[in-house]
Amino acid sequence: MKNHNLSLRGSTGIIFGILSLIFVFGLKFILQSYTSASEGFSVLPISFFQIIIVALVILYIIILYTAITLVNRKRRKKLRQKNWNFQAKFIRYVFISFLIIFGVSVFYLMNIGELNWIIPIGLIWFGIACILANYQSNGNTFILGLSIITTGILAHFFNTFEFIFLAIALGIFPIIYGINYAKK
After folding, report:
1. The pTM is what?
2. Is 129 in a helix, a strand, or coil?
3. Cα 112–153–28 angle (5° rounding)?
4. pLDDT digits (tens, 9 = 90+) for 55-90
5. DSSP string, 24-74
6. Cα(48)–Cα(109) distance, integer angstroms
7. Which residue in 15, 138, 134, 11 sits closest to 75, CA to CA?
């Protein structure tokens, strides 16, 4: 049985989705506050504001990783599985690699001034990572990955709704995935 520390099956998918929805709407609020002349964030220099955004993203990733690992550790303990098997290591390396690729992509996009590509590229990279992880997981992360990639493409073409697409891809899809695989 393939059960690893980064599974989004059941409650971990639901937790991932809920935390992601909180993060996306919080990020949207902070960005709107920055662009509004009446809010407290608008007085910050852009470089300081970028550091705050990067720090929030890193905090979000750490919280997600910790939550997923802790919930899955409990599941693995119940199934009497110890250590990280090959599937878990492979999936961890896939997601870490794509996280690094995304970070480099963001840095490049910021340098050339193409900020409207950050969310679509991030969703596309995450979708590709889910597709690659499909071969080492017992869920159907291939469908999840394709859905996230499609949402990333839509986020690019309909960039006024990119935060809604981000919420759907990182929030709603993992919740549906978690609920679907909690029954199995």
Report:
1. 0.79
2. helix
3. 70
4. 888 888 888 888 887 877 766 666 565 655 666 677
5. HHHHHHHHHHHHSTTSGGGGS-HHHHHHHHHHHHHHHHHHHHHHHHHHHHH
6. 18
7. 11
